[in-house]
Amino acid sequence: MMITCLIEDTGTLKAEHGLSLHIDKPNLLFDMGQSNSFIENAQELDINISKVEYALISHGHYDHGGGLPYFLKENKKAEIYVGDGAFYKRCANDNGSWRYIGLDESLADNPQIKTLKRDTKITRDCTILTSIQKFFPTPKGNNKLYKISKDKIVLDDFKDEIILVIEKEDGLLVLTGCSHRGILNITETVKRKYNKPIKALIGGFHIKAEEAPSLIDPFKSIEEIYTGHCTSKRAYNILKENLDNIKPLHTGTQIEII
User: Fold this and answer.
1) Which sequence spans correspond to the domains of the chain?
2) How far is residue 102 CA from its own chain's centroid?
């Protein structure tokens, strides 16, 4: 199995603030960045987006699902999974300045899009988790992120966030977009559901430097960790100084899972 990062904030190919990961077996796309750059990078890497069979948008933010209209032009067959509420209007409050950060609402009724309200197995080994239990605090960065619910602007609870778990014989692969519901909540939910070790954890953790120390001990039991995007550089450096199993995620990174 090969996991290729098609979009991340940094890298040698086209980079942008966002995330997109491609898995070759099954042929699956996890997130789509904010533009068509993930498609252009895929072409450079000989990955045919039109042949993708399954696609996920981890949550309703533009940097993970902004590429959706471009994907729909390229691919007419894949089922695209989103969590319930992914197409709510969303905005960020940057010190009093509001900006829209949601998805294109006009695409919500596209027949390729499947809204999930419960954990769903999409292949023999792949399950999308919608139910993330809360054992630990959620990221501090969530406190400036809002959604519009019943015509009211409220803090986003990210109930639409979905996680991909792939079962291997020797453990689990966990893919996450931004971990707005808390990366430790995600890993603890996965461990309790499957009672198996996490072999690889890949994605953004949405943490600042002061939040990184709490991850060090829980992360020691994970074989491989690849993170970037919304994991701050200072947070990554703290984790890297204390963990041998963590590596940076960049546009173009390829991860072979044996």
Assistant:
1) 2-256
2) 15
Nearest to 191 by CA among 161, 163, 212, 230: 163
pLDDT in tens, 180-229: 999 999 999 999 999 999 999 999 999 999 999 999 999 999 999 999 99
Burial 129-168 (b: 16+ CB within 10 A, else e): bbebeeebebbebbeebbbeeeeeeeebebbbbbbbbbbe
How high is the pLDDT of residue 151?
86
Is residue 113 within 8 Å of residue 55, measured between CB atoms? no
Structure token pair of residue 127:
């399950």
**One-letter identity of residue 223:** E
pLDDT, averaged in runs of 10, over the chain (258 residues)? 98 97 97 98 98 98 98 98 97 94 97 98 98 97 94 95 96 98 98 96 98 98 97 98 98 94
Q: Taking the model in full, what pTM does it have? A: 0.97
- DSSP-based three-state secondary structure for 64: helix
Given this model, what pLDDT does residue 7 score? 98
> Which structure tokens are listed for 237?
């450096």
CATH 3.30.70.1530 at 2-256, yes or no: no
Could you tell me if 246 and 239 are in contact, meaning their C-beta atoms sit under 8 angstroms apart?
yes
Instruction: Supply 100's token pair.
Output: 């829209």
Nearest partner of 12 among 257, 248, 226, judged by Cα:
248
Q: Which two tokens stand for residue 132?
A: 């993330």
